[in-house]
Amino acid sequence: LEGDLNKIEYQTHDSFGIQIPKSCPDVPNAILNPRDTWPNEKEYDATCQNLVKLFQENFQQYAKQSGADIANAGPSIKT
């Protein structure tokens, strides 16, 4: 509400495209990026890729009713 988050740097999540703050007042940096909270980064990556796949498979039922801009806005696996 005070605009503190307007003054910080963000990073983009590779698969979901969401903006993750690199710092946040009164919040430990270690918990801001979900990947950093997992004890095993490879396990996180595999789980993330599986979630992307599930999103993509589920979206297929709506693909014909949506335009390319909507279809391309969904999560994707970056290689």
Explain this structure:
Strand 1 (10-12) and strand 2 (19-21) form a beta hairpin. The protein has a two-stranded antiparallel ribbon with strand order 1-2. The chain has 2 helices and 2 strands; from the N terminus they run ββαα. The model has no long low-confidence stretch (mean pLDDT 92). By secondary structure, the chain is α+β, with helices and mostly antiparallel strands.
Structural features:
2 helices, flat, 79 residues
List the helices and strands and how they pair.
Elements: E1 10-12, E2 19-21, H1 41-59, H2 68-71
Antiparallel strand pairs: 1-2
Summary?
Helix content is about 30%, strand content about 10%. With about 80 residues, it is α+β, with helices and mostly antiparallel strands.
Uncertain runs are: none
Number of helical regions? 2
SS-derived structural category: alpha+beta
Secondary-structure element pattern, one letter each? EEHH
User: Span from first to last CA?
Assistant: 37 Å
Order of adjacent strands in the largest pleated sheet: 1-2
